[in-house]
């Protein structure tokens, strides 16, 4: 009888705006007025046109054309009714509130232990074991979550190979979701390089061999015409963030096809651990359009389609169907993060969908925001302003041009100078040498704004000598390109050169921390994309900073979600950069750091989210009303907690 009563108990329903504060749970049939009010508000937003005087010119605006819409222009054809609502009360309940472990029915016994959302292992209490038919299915010992955490960390540290640690963490995520995030949050500096770069790169290369259980949606060309149906196969309806890749440019490793799924999975794990977006609201997606990697096509363990990549109109139509289906299924306010698309597609997708969807490209915009934050912080360390520097990039792809544009935008904002003038402070070197005006006709569209008047220069060393930059930034994806000659050259005319070797993974970094400090005689202000150990030079310990996108995108995503933003604007990225730079303390500066430690990342993410949300409200892009009085506290209240819940 107890089992029957449990199965027919009314399912709890919870109403909550996306990322909003927790509200009291209502039984089925309640919340009608609130639901109607929210529907009315969404109808109002869907048909409204927003205007702002804060519009800035940008590279994407130039690509679209002077008459093209910007992200502040709301077109009725590009907006739909709908949105995201909470489904499960347990996602938003306070830690001391009893929740019901719902699957199809109330989960009990064997099934409860195999549902990663509800499984607590040996932490199930005596009462829970009795109520949910767990007697005999577990050893008699009852342990705390803290003891479980210590045991798992001890086990992980026994592995000598990073990929083994990655596989252990992924296995834990599949078994016990809350323990996985508790472990990651409490040991973020130790585990971040395991679940994210650099180890995730190796995991993607070997994904076919280590694949055991799917962790997201795989949408291939076979599903063309049925993508909406595929999205509906995902069990969660309350999706707030999607990270999607086509696997063509995974980190600096190239085309990994369907095996690029490790990137969306890893990114979304950080959205939850670092930004507090609840895991049930996150959806990793891989678009399998084939691969041009011959090694994978001939690999018997490859898990994707064995055909060469779709291109041209076939690819464009497939992406159009996907973007339309996502909005139709999840509504206007689901954040779609493009991840590791090749340059030629990344800019095209951001340009095409930036004014019709809530989209964000971490490789272009996230990298730019975190690098700009480091440069803003460096001015506090060295003195001066951004406009006083000359910037030289090695690499003119997604990351390089994205960073360059955001630097120019910030200089324009600070000096009130036209964006075209500010771009002249920034120079880029690609595979053919310095980008100059004489090359303009042969350049890709996203490189053309950086073609300045100068004689032809064929390599990085000669460019350093000719341009005499104060800031050298590497986004080339090629290791050991900041040679001793290059670093000695920039150090010869700068007392404290700023050197950022950003390419991932570690093997692709333009130089190591030891090389940068040794060749600059300990004078470089240095940061990298992947972690490096501290370096001792001339009796002083130098701690390299890490310009890791994980500083930005989790907090940025939380800010977008909690404000109900319906578009991403450049000013929101600038706000995120400034918020991150403000978190660097004097103690950090004394160590030569231009980024704060990851140990405070949730606090950092809350401040970034608050600044991003504030800017969304200022620009008229936020749909959540009323605006919370204290956005930092509100951001903290929205964050997912991995602490075990007590079950009825």
From TrEMBL:
InterPro entries registered for this protein in UniProt: Aminoacid_DH-like_N_sf, Malic_enzyme_CS, Malic_N_dom, Malic_N_dom_sf, Malic_NAD-bd, Malic_OxRdtase, NAD(P)-bd_dom_sf
Co-factor(s): Mn(2+); Mg(2+)
Gene3D superfamilies: Malic enzyme, N-terminal domain, NAD(P)-binding Rossmann-like Domain
Cofactor comment text: Divalent metal cations. Prefers magnesium or manganese.
Residues noted as binding (S)-malate in the record, renumbered to the chain: 249, 504, 548
UniProt-annotated catalytic positions: 196 (proton donor), 267 (proton acceptor)
Catalytic activity: oxaloacetate + H(+) = pyruvate + CO2
UniProt feature coiled coil, ranges: none
GO terms under biological process: malate metabolic process
Keyword NADP set for record: yes
Key word Nucleotide-binding present: no
Superkingdom of this protein's organism: Eukaryota
Domain Malic enzyme N-terminal: 173-354
Gene Ontology molecular function: any one: malate dehydrogenase (decarboxylating) (NADP+) activity
Domain Malic enzyme NAD-binding span(s) in chain numbering: 364-617
UniProt keyword terms in alphabetical order: Metal-binding, NADP, Oxidoreductase
Residues annotated as binding a divalent metal cation: 339-340, 363
TM ranges: none
Pathway: Photosynthesis; C4 acid pathway
Record-linked PANTHER family: MALIC ENZYME-RELATED, NADP-DEPENDENT MALIC ENZYME 1
NCBIfam families: PRK13529.1
Subunit note: Homotetramer.
Family as reported in the entry's similarity comment: Belongs to the malic enzymes family.
Protein name in the entry: Malic enzyme
Species whose genome carries this gene: Urochloa decumbens
Lineage start: Eukaryota, Viridiplantae, Streptophyta, Embryophyta, Tracheophyta
